[in-house]
Structures are given as C-alpha cells and as structure tokens.
Specification:
The chain is α/β, with parallel strands linked by helices. It is built from 5 helices and 7 strands.
Length: 141
C-alpha cells in the first residue's frame, strides 16, 4: 500500500517513476523502467497488484543484470528489515552514485553488533510522511 500511495503522489507531482522487485510478479515483469507517460502509473500499480511475496533471488544481482538507470535517478528502497540483502543493494547504488533512501518495516534489532549497518538513511514506515497529504495535514492540525 505504501509503495502504491507514494507512486500515485509522485505521479501527481510530475515525477518519473519506475519499479524493480526481486519478488514474483505473476504474469508480468519484475522491472518497470523509470518513465513519465500515460501508462506508467497504471503499469506500476498492476505490477504491485500481481506481486507475490516470494523471492526470485537477490535484488542486487537482478539490478546488476537488468537495471539500466536513467541519468539523475534517485531510489526509494523498501524491505522488511535492515539486513545483508539491503546492504548489497546499498553497495549497488553506491557504486553507481545513485542516491537511495531505505524504508524498512521493522527497525534494526538492538544489540546486533555483528553486522555492519547501512551507511545511508534508513527510515521505518512510521517515519515517512508526504507533505500536503490529508493524513499529514491532520497531524499538523
């Protein structure tokens, strides 16, 4: 729901949007190149609707093989938690000098000093708000 809501907000504001997942997209593609056209938002929302929560492998590996980023692109990356897979994706974008903001469903557990933290900005779902949305305006109240 969050990804769909953000895609709608970005589309309404005139931003180009794209989509990549390592999840299974039934009857569709796991990657939608960044673009701004009449079908882009509906294609992205359809991919989200067909998305199964089964992994087809490493997202970082898939991006290396198939993702051709447009110049000036930025990325929002959504994942369940901050883990080694998220750090691999961070490495991919870092090597290409692509800004990325990570959004996780679950905060990093305290006391797990055995793993390297992500260097980039990591937010939980509860920390994200879009200026100008009705929910955000209610909170300002």
């Amino acid at each position: 729901e969050v990804v769909a809501s953000l895609a709608v907000q970005f589309d309404q504001r005139g931003y180009a949007v794209g989509f990549a997942t390592n999840g299974v997209v039934e009857g569709g593609s796991s990657m939608l190149p960044t673009g701004r056209n009449a079908r882009q938002l509906s294609s992205l929302l359809e991919a989200l609707a067909r998305l199964q929560m089964n992994s087809e492998g490493s997202l970082a590996d898939m991006l290396c093989r198939r993702f051709k980023p447009a110049w000036g692109v930025s990325c929002l990356h959504f994942s369940y938690e901050e883990d080694s897979a998220l750090r691999a994706v961070e490495g991919y974008f870092s090597r290409r000098k692509i800004p990325v903001l990570f959004v996780v469903c679950r905060s990093r557990p305290h006391g797990r000093g055995d793993e390297r933290k992500v260097r980039g900005k990591v937010l939980t779902l509860g920390e994200i708000r879009i200026e100008g949305t009705r929910e955000n305006e209610k909170r300002k109240g």
